[in-house]
Amino acid sequence: MSTIEVIPSGAALGAEIRGVDLSKPLSDDTRRQILAAWHEHLVLYFRGQNLSDPALLQFGECFGEVLADNRPVDYNRAADTEYPDRIDVISNVVVDGKPIGALGDGEALWHTDTQPVPNSALILHALETPSQGGRTRFGNMYTAYETLPDDLREQVEGRASIHDRIYGLQKNTLFHSSSATLDAFDKSRMPGPWWPIVRTHGETGRKALHLQREGGGYVVGLSSEDSDRLLERLWAHMTQPHLIWEHSWQVGDVLVWDNRCTIHARTPFQSTERRRLHRVTVKGEWPN
């Protein structure tokens, strides 16, 4: 029986896994150890991995059903992967005037991945990384819930929020943009799904805060002004430094996070540098 080495980050979440080659089939015991570490640390990363796309998909299947063609944004998948229906390309690289992937080089605001149901696991494999920037930050939403001030806890228990499924509908898009504008609209009529602000994880049974995107959303039953104030307080609480861990990417990294109990964001990097990652998305469950 092989035993992996789990090295906690020392922060609120995150751990490095050593002693496993993800390019080779994993034993049932190794998969169980990885899943146990994932449930404990929420984000895992593996250094120095050299994965083919089939091996990346195989690793993704350790966490559940890999989704196909469920993204609302053009990721130009066919440009840079053998499996354009199941592997997304995250990149700022442009070839012959066309991006080979999505999400560019800007700063990504805090968010969870949510199309059309919150995903469970997401796996990234780093193929090219910039010398600076482009780091991914993660927040522990179990601890964020457990440390809510009493008055804030009373305001969110039993409440739902509408998750905005259309980027740009509100004053902030997913990425910072000086050209972003806010048109007058009724937030209570946004087209996104209604989900509980406090959700229960389908596998661990633990409660976590669950919001989709910093600067967006609407708390059902409140005025727009009261909703904005409550969401602003929640995001300020959720993004406190002691809840956050940041990953600095190296070529060959494979990283998997639990989207049901974390939030994540990305720092910007120079547009003159190349960044290219392949991503696999695993099906989640409707939040309860």
Automatic annotation (TrEMBL):
Keywords: Dioxygenase, Iron, Metal-binding, Oxidoreductase. Residues 8-281 form the TauD/TfdA-like domain. It holds the Pfam family TauD. InterPro entries: AtsK-like, TauD-like_sf, TauD/TfdA-like. Transmembrane segments: none annotated. It comes from the Bacteria. Belongs to the TfdA dioxygenase family. This is TauD/TfdA family dioxygenase. It comes from Pseudomonas mangiferae.
